[in-house]
Each structure stands twice: as C-alpha cells, then as structure tokens.
Amino acid sequence: MLPSSQRSRQPKTWLALAIGAALACVAFEARAHGSRLVPVEDHAVPPAVPIVPSEEAPPAATVASPWTGLYVGGHVAYGVAQTCDTLSTTAPTSSSDSLGSFAGGVQLGYDRRLPSHLILGVEGDIEFPYFVQDGAVVSRRAPQGSVTGKLDFVSTVRARAGYALDRWVFYATGGLAWAQTRLLETGASGATSTTLGYPIGWSAGAGAQLALAPGWTLRAQFLHDRMGDTTLDGVQLGLDWHFGANGAASDAWPIRSDDWNVHWQSTFIEQGYLAFRSPYQGPDSLTGATQFANTFSATAFVGLRLWQGAALYFDPEIDQGFGLSQTLGVAGFPNGEAQKASYPVPRLNLDRLIVRQTFGLGGEQAIAEDGPNQLPEKRDVSRITVTAGRMSVGDGFGLNAFAQDPRTQFLNWNIYGSGSYDWTMDRPGFTWGAFAELNQRRWAVRVAYFLEPTESNGNAYDLDVPTRGQYLVEPELRYALLGQPGVLRLMAWATRANMGSYTEAVAMPTTTPGYPDITQTRQVRFTYGFVANVEQAVTRDLGLFSRASWTPGQVEVMGWTDCDESASLGLLLTGRLWRRPDDQLGLAGVVEGLSPEARAYFAAGGMGIVIGDGKLDYRPEQIAEAYYAIGLAPWATLTLDAQVVVNPAYNADRGPVPIYAARLHVER
C-alpha cells in the first residue's frame, strides 16, 4: 500500500488507456467468444458431430511472409537494472547496486521488406516492472539514511535492420530511450522525500523473429538501455500481430491454428461517492470526504496445446489504479477490479501460468469452444482434469454463472464471491497450487491444495508443503427444476498457516505499542469454513443465485476480506424482453457479519485486512447493488452500477454510503 500522504493521488488514466489499446491489438484476430444467461454444461451438450477435414492449405512456400506492414504486440521480459544515487545529506554518500526483475509491455512498429531480403523498419515500445518489486532498481542503507531508486517504466523508439530467411528474420536495432524514475530518500530524522526523474539516453540490441502462424510472429530480443546513471539489460519474449497479413492455415506452419489461441480483455472502471456521515475514522476507514478513483486492467490470454489432452495457459496483465480509500473501509468492497496493491503507474502481473491435463474416461463426448484459457477440443463428458500452477482459486471453485466476474457482472466482492471464505491470494488475487476435478454428466467433485501467504495480505508464499496451506473440496450437483437447469455447489475449506488470534490480541496489556497488535500473536494455526452456492434458471432470460458462507472467526484473515458470515441473493435478467438481447440487468444484496471475537478486536481499535475504524459500534454490514450493462457491440459493454453500503466496516456510526460506477469492458 502507498503511504497515507499519497492516497489521494490518481493514476495517469491516459497512459493506462493507451497501454490497454495497444495490448488489445495483440489478439486482434482472435475469435470472439459469446456468452448466454444459462451456461451450457457438458451434460447439456449433444454428442459432437464428426469433424470433416478441410481442404489442404497451400504449400508452405506459397504462404506469404508477414515482413511488410504495420504490427502491434506485447512482450514479457527479464532484466537487470542498475543506477547510482547520492544521498543529499550533510555528508553525501553514493550508492550503486543492481536488481533483476520481470517486466512486461507493448510494442508498435512498421517494417518493409526489400527485394534483396533486407528488412528495414521502426519500432516503439514501453515496458513496466513486475508488481512485487514496484520498480525498485536499487535499495541501499547509508550511515545518514537510505536511498531507494525505482524505475516506473522505460520506453524506446528504435530503427530496425534485418535479413529475412523464409519465415525467420534476424535483426539489429537501436535508437532513443527514456524512463520515469523515482528517488525516495530517507534521512537520519526519518523524513522521506520523493523526486521524479525523466532520464533520456539510447538503446541498442538484436533479436530474431519467427513467422509462427498466419499474421503472427514470435520474437526473442535483447536490449541494452542507458539513460544517464541508469542502465537496463533485458531479454524479451513476445508476440506480434501483423495487420493485413495473408496466408491460409496450414500444417506447414510451425504451429497448427487449433493448437494455440490468443484472446484479450480490457476493463476500465470509474467509481466514486459524495461525502457521507463520518464522525471519526481510523487508518483503514473509508474516508468520509467525497472521492473518485479508477482502475484499469488489460490482459492477454495465451494458450498452447502441449500434447493430446494437455495445454499450457499464460495470462500476463497490466494493471493501474486505486480502489476507493486504497481498497480499504468496506468488507464487501465495491470494486472487484480494485486490488490490495495500488499502482500510480502501470505494473505487470503474471496472473496465470498453468498446465492442464485432461484424462478422458470414455463414453459421451462434448465440444469445448475456443475461449480465454480454453483451447477448442472434443473431450469426454466423463473425465478427470488436473490443473497446476499459478492461478486464482476462483478459476475452479465458487463458480456461479450469474455472479462470478466483476468485469462483466456484479462489482461487489461479496456478491460475486463468498464473503467469509478466506480466498487464499497475494495482493493482486492469485496463488500457486493444484486442483483435480472428476466430472460426470450430472455431477462433479473438485479437490485442491493452494499455498498461503507467509503473513496476512502478503505477497510471499509459505513453502512448507503440504503441512501448511489451504485445502478445499467442492461437490457439484446439476439438476432441473420445473424444466429449468440449476446447479448446487457445497464447498468446505481448511487453512493451516501463520495467523494471529483475535482473542490473544485483545488480551494483551493495553500499554502494548500498537494495541491490539495482532501481528505479535502470529503462529501456525488452523481454521476452516463452509460455503453453499446455488444458481437457478427461472426462464431462458431470468436467473436467480444465492451464496451463504460461515467460518468460526477466531483468527485473522489471510487473503480475502474481514468477514465471518455472509448471505447473498440476486437475479440476472437479459434485455430480450425489451428487444435488447445483449443487455443485462442485475440486482443483488448481501448481509455480512463478524464473530464475537472479531467484534471485540475491532472495537478495541484493531486493524484488519481491509477494515479498521479505530473503534466499533457493531452492526451487520449490508450492501445492495444494481447494474445495467449495455451491449455496445459483441465485443464491448458499457455498464452503469450503483451500490448502497449500510454500516460500512460493520460500524453503525458511519454511513450509509451510496457509491456509483461506470465500467467499460472490451474483449475478443
């Protein structure tokens, strides 16, 4: 989280939107994936029809190479940055160090191929560091204090010259480079100052590109950037889409068209409220003053078939923005895109890196359509699927067709999620682990193990496997009620991790610094909980959903939000009745509460993962949400959203708070 002095600072939205537009073009030609009110499960899909082989594509030699024209793409990178800084104290001390980290960004360029096979072109790119290190390139303590240099982004404009050999191009590149840097200087008194810098310099490097499929090229590139006292050496791996490229799909290409896919999404949310009743507030309160905040995300979904039944999925994402009050002050937070880490400039997140293996058990088959993190395939309805890697727990557990995606449906955390389920995650919302699913025509069961953070709301993972972590089981029953499909899911979870105790924190002497300081009570503890989750179609256009969850509430929350019991109810209606079939209307409410031990802790001034007013006049937190999603195009939706939060952070002394939002979502 940023220090309180920076909490009102807004992100550079123009930069975020520009990055999203460029990243979106990476998958410009990926086939759009549709949605319907009532999802079609495997048991409802008729057996797959035989696939008729298409005509053979022209020989490889006749397929045009994509080395002339405009292209756009995205990349991930690993680089080593180095800088030299001097503390501006009475006895200046120089500091020089280096730090390696992941990064990612987008590029745009134009190439022209000459008859001699010479390739000439120009390219511009911008690159952002991985969220964990927040752009830190040096951090060294000196006798008079400390200095930390942070690299917010690096951008280049370069000429390219290369030589084309069939589907390969080998090239050299060089040009102008510039960056935004932050120097955080702390003196002996503890005072911190921040200085922004914009060094300009040069960039040079070399690389190779392979024409991977019609319109697509894969690149590997090395760049050396030097900007004043800052240098960056990085190796990039990326994909480019070439506009106007031709050439039919063919087995002669390095990769078959149905063995990989690329999709993308971008979501921008502006949210805010007017001043509300707030006689007091604490460090983790929703501020009582008028405020507006926005969040932005742009994600690429890349899938690759490894062998029969196995696939690799990789989802790099660029995020920017802030939740209201730095994502603090409401247990059922009103923006599902607001992470617990806030970014004044864009940051790279590696959302998913998973391998999925499906073992067919024979019998009836169904077709899985092409989509994000799903390659098109024909698979057995009766099957075992194993998924492992970095992912969100919500990729496999707690699903509900009518309330599960804050980018297209309800925004509130505890309406699209289960309030008291302590969803294990780092600050961006992801973890490492594995789960297995046994699927049958009318039922399924899933089991999982996921890593827990080493401490509440942390980004580092406890690697004491498997004695610590989170364990889940979720049976699923599919049925029909009055001829309409429904699904019931019952989830049980257990966590063994380094957690603090509410009771022990309150029992500490009131003279303890930071009383009640729950961090001083942390040790390996055990907790558990249950979730009931139902979705029911009423008509082809109307669906109902409900979730209920409970946990004992004896220990601090590790990843999700401060909540020990919750119940939600809602409906989703398509606009077919008023001749707007691509529109949606959603209405829902949730009530959530704390255990007696948690109430005592927060009343004594305790701070939680997202709440803490310094004292507490306890009442259950109550939230109502309504949204209307306008289908602008098959790939674009504009949503208007309104929420009312009664007793924010379970405190009857504050609120209620009406919160309004506008959301623009595009996907292909």
Structure, described:
The chain has 668 residues and is mostly beta strands. It folds into two domains: 4-51 and 255-667, Carbohydrate-selective porin OprB (Porin, Beta Barrel), CATH 2.40.160.180; 67-242, Porin (Beta Barrel), CATH 2.40.160.20. The chain has four helices and 28 strands. The protein has helices at 13-25, 413-416, 502-507, 596-603, and strands spanning 69-86, 94-113, 118-129, 136-142, 145-165, 168-186, 192-197, 200-213, 216-227, 230-242, 260-273, 291-307, 310-321, 343-360, 365-368, 377-380, 383-391, 431-439, 443-450, 469-481, 484-499, 523-537, 542-550, 565-575, 580-593, 621-633, 636-646, 657-667. The strands form three sheets. Strands 11-12-13-14-17-18-19-20-21-22-23-24-25-26-27-28 form a 16-stranded antiparallel barrel. The protein has an eight-stranded antiparallel beta barrel with strand order 1-2-3-5-6-8-9-10.
Percentage of β-strand residues: over 45%
SS summary, helix count: 4
CATH class call of the largest domain:
Mainly Beta
Low-confidence stretches: 1-15, 21-63, 87-91
Largest sheet features: 16 strands, antiparallel, barrel
What assembly state would you assign to the polypeptide chains in this entry? single chain
Report the CATH architecture of the largest domain: Beta Barrel
> What's the β-strand tally?
28
End-to-end separation = 32 Å
- What average pLDDT do the residues reach? 87
Q: Kindly identify the CATH topology of the largest domain.
A: Porin
- Shape assignment: globular
Count of spatially separate domains: 2
Strand numbers in spatial order across the main sheet: 11-12-13-14-17-18-19-20-21-22-23-24-25-26-27-28
